[in-house]
Amino acid sequence: MEYMSQEGYDKLVAELKQLESIELPRVKEAIAEARDKGDLSENFEYHAAKREQGRLLSRIRFKQRVLAHARVLDTSRLGTDSVQLLSKVEMTNMANGSRMTYTIASPHEANIREGKISIKSPIAQKLLNKKVGDIVEVRVPAGTLHFRIDSIQL
Q1: Cβ partners under 8 Å of residue 45, min gap 6
Q2: Cα 3 versus chain centre, distance
Q3: Separation of alpha carbons 145 and 20, rounded Å
Q4: DSSP designation for 120
Q5: pLDDT greater than 90 at residue 17
Q6: Is the pTM of this model over 0.70?
């Protein structure tokens, strides 16, 4: 079972719809055009289109599986007393005093540019169930980092 936000669920549904209704017909059309050009054994365009179709069908099946096992979390039932999935955590790096804010998200919603880190990441794993004021020690490839949790929001 995969827990996620309503926003993440809606985004996956939209991606799946686009793959099925726009991308797949486009690839099928490319295959038909390449097939019309004659000898398939040496037809690069045909083989490239077939590879693209296989890749696309694989992505569609993956997204269908994720959505089949997805459960949307009701944010009104979540608290801010400790860090959990969908928590927005503001923290300070104790070594250099830099402040950062991350939202703990499902692996399918994780996007570092948006400040969303996967619940399966080392930092998120150490933050889970911690409270405001706690100091968290996280081992990363670059060494050990110490973070102080400043606030938890939804």
Answers
A1: 30, 33, 34, 37
A2: 12
A3: 44
A4: T
A5: yes
A6: yes
